[in-house]
Amino acid sequence: MGKSVKILTVVTAILLFISLFLIFGYAQVEKTMLEVQKIFYLHVSAAMTVYLAFGVNFIFCIKYLIQRKPDDDLLAVSAAEIGLVFCTIVLLSGPIWAKYAWNTWWNWEARLTSTLVLWLMYVGYFILRSALAEDKRKLYSAVLGIIAFFNVPIVHFATKLWEEGAHPERGAKVNTLPSIQYTWMVVLVAFIVLFSLLLILQYRVKKTESRYEVIRRKHIEETS
Amino acid sequence: MRIIIIISFLIVVGLVFSAIQVPTIHSKKVEEAIKEATSQSQVTPEDEDIVRQAVTLSVEKLESAQRTRLKYLVSAYLVIWLVFMLYLLRLGRQQQALDQRLAQLEQETSDNQDESMK
After folding, report:
1. Is 2.60.120 the CATH classification of the domain at A3-223?
2. Distance CA A26, CA A19 (A)
3. B69-104, pLDDT tens digit by residue?
4. Which residues of A113-123 are buried (b: 16+ CB within 10 A; e: fewer)?
5. Hey, which of A74, A80, A185, B99 would disulfide with A57, CB 3.0 to 4.6 Å?
6. Closest CA to B104 of A17, A215, A65, A67
């Protein structure tokens, strides 16, 4: 593990501890949802990190299509994998909130449905990658990565586009306490730093994988 | 990777501990409140019993509601931690397996090269 990764790991750990302290020790208990509202900090921050991860995937998919550098494909797939993990977190923590707030685990409202579609699209991205041969894999998955990203603004503006559902409308004025706002901001920063760390670690795995493949092919050629 | 897993584990332990620490309504305080309410006005012992029952019942309801809320809170945080843990474990194992396979392959390649040189 490099020095910079070690530093980033320590920074991430510190930020996560601070986040936890702020959530349970500083942020006031919200009056409507009471203790359950504390799910919001991780749920919403994870949702924002999903946007970031799929945004990074989108950028590197475009970059790959223009420059055809294998490293861009590795970064794109790494970002998509982490995005999928965060999206899974959003989809799992959301129903727990929903069960308490709306007395149902799931309802087919715009935000929930579009998030599920987003998750399924990126699952499709990985299925496509595993199904295709090496030469086609990078190209086709880059195209799918770009297409899949167009679902991100749909998820974000879902409450505005379809004005029904349980999620609060985007930009709606909510009387949030300053302690809640500050805490959420710190948690969001912690999640962004965590995403950066995971991206580096995931990219390393992908890089080793591709190096292994190159050496393996060379080895087969030499022995045959 | 181990450091991350240990740190994340500590975070969850801290979280569960914090959730347990959330104060519930203390029975002594309930008793004091009942005494205070009944001492200010002239009430019969029967009335005092009714007040006691009503207060105890509402406190029980409040505490039960709080326990339910904490169950939701802890389960959400545990689910999030579990997803992260599974992902990190998978990532660590992947890296470990790849490093091993890579070292093995590099060794085989160098052995082959040595043989061909001979």
Report:
1. no
2. 10
3. 888 888 898 899 899 989 988 998 998 999 899 888
4. bbbbebbebbe
5. A80
6. A215
d(CA A187, CA B90): 25
B99, A202: Cβ pair inside 8 Å? no
pTM equals: 0.86
Cβ-Cβ contacts under 8 Å, A13 against chain B: 3-4, 7
Say how far apart CA A140 and CA A126 lie, in whole Å.
11
Measured CA to CA, the distance from residue B9 to residue B81 in angstroms comes to: 8
Q: A120-154: per-residue pLDDT in tens?
A: 999 999 999 999 988 789 999 999 999 999 999 99
Contact status of A217 with chain B (Cβ, < 8 Å): no
Quote ipTM for the complex.
0.88
How far is the first Cα of chain A from the last one, in angstroms, to the nearest whole number? Answer: 36
**Do the Cβ atoms of B109 and A25 come within 8 Å?**
no
Between CA B105 and CA A212 the distance in angstroms is 8
- The span from the CA of A215 to the CA of A217, in Å, is 5
Question: Does B1 contact A at CB distance below 8 Å?
Answer: yes
pLDDT tens digits for range B8-22: 677 677 666 666 555
Q: Which residues of A touch B90 (CB under 8 A)?
A: none
Contacts (Cβ under 8 Å, ≥6 apart) of A17: B11, B14
CA–CA separation, A73 vs B72, rounded Å?
A: 39
Instruction: Decide: A155 and A115 in contact? Cβ < 8 Å.
Output: yes
